[in-house]
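Q&A log
Question type: sequence-to-structure
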Amino acid sequence: MTASVELDDIQGIVARGYSGLTSACFLMLAITEPAAARTALGRAAARVTDGTAEPPDAAVNLALTADGLRGLGPVTPDLDGFSEEFVSGMTDPNRSRFLGDVADNAPAHWRWGGPATPPVHVMLMLYARDEERLARLEAELREDLLATGGLTEVVRLATATLTDREPFGFRDGISQPLVEGLPKTSRVVAAREGGAAAGDVVKAGEFLLGYPNEYGLLTDRPVLSAPDDPAGLLPRTQGGADLGRNGSYVVFRQLHQDVEGFWSYLDAATRRPDGTADAAARDALAARMVGRWPSGAPLVHAPRQDDPRLADDNDFGYFATDPAGLRCPLGAHIRRAHPRDSLDPRPGSADSVAIGRRHRILRRGRAYGPYAAAQRPGAAAGDGAESGLHFLCLNANISRQFEFIQHTWLNNPTFNGLHDAPDPLVAPRHDHRRTFTEQGRPLRTRHLDLPRFVSVQGGAYFFLPGLRALRYLCAATPAGGRR
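Response status: OK
Response body:
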């Protein structure tokens, strides 16, 4: 039975990627005075975009860190019902080691969100159809939030104009999960002859709290006692006030991409014996690291050269077509981030695909910097400014979804039976023994001493409340005497 998702109570970023709103920025704020902050955030909450329709002009979404929830004061200090990883935060020392945020990537070196920088309590996500409309929207929200006290700006994170490319020059956003009950899923299912197979659609509870997940269970979420919501702002569940329903967790990480270093390494690794450059070999090695060609064509279906006709191709597995990694290397980025049908204990089976559905994330990131608009590999950036990705994903279980992918698949040097070979693009580099292996016959090719191409500049875990929960959190009247 398909879950009926309450689109009018979920924030729009869950249902839509805002592809028509090509300009965006993220404002990270700190609470300085709770009562004034609640009043200001209440005004902003009235402008938050829901999931019922694609906004044609602009969109606003709002999320809070654990310290932000504590700062507003409507819930218990220990945040009962929220996930442990959200409560302890991304910069918890044990979590940093688990995620690989150590050495130069350690939070102590971050530009924002780390222990040496001002705390982040609120994230305001602003989207608009163009830069002019974004500037007006931002000015209006700043007047509402910052001019009246209670909140201060920690950092403003700008984005590049949205394209279908990420800064390394590859098409991005192709392999997104279809989420039960969301508008895009309904359209895709209707468009497919005979409907979508069961394995195509992921349960809504993997991304939204209050709905069954892939285990057929409800993920833990914060439920208050009914007296804590005397105004009846929250939905009721078994006599309690459901603060979590229609909410999600946001993982936000600012990832700097060393675009020039990436293409320089590839150029050096693929030079001919006489020292001359081999652009075709360079681009092919880049594609093998990614698992797709720059157009988006997957190596599984286009192993030898790019085929733009396959740019949208996402209908493939690995077990039957390429079990040994001769087309798409076993350690390629997309093969790690989404292993499809190659997971134990029964690779190639429906059980393998079902296991993968328990580790999906809904990506909503935006690129930044001059390289973000590059339409070909290695294209010149122009002014030398930094480029990268504001990685933003939604999940209901941070530990089982984002953290599992990051630790067990991307950063794992023994993924798929490999050795000393974490993800060639995004895994941290703390020594010079990292390799990338191209499987082949009769011999494999190993690329040694991969440098670091991606580094973490900041990050945090946020709770993205449902709209009723957001109104409750921002209510000026004390709830249950807890404020």
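Response note: The chain has a mean pLDDT of 92.
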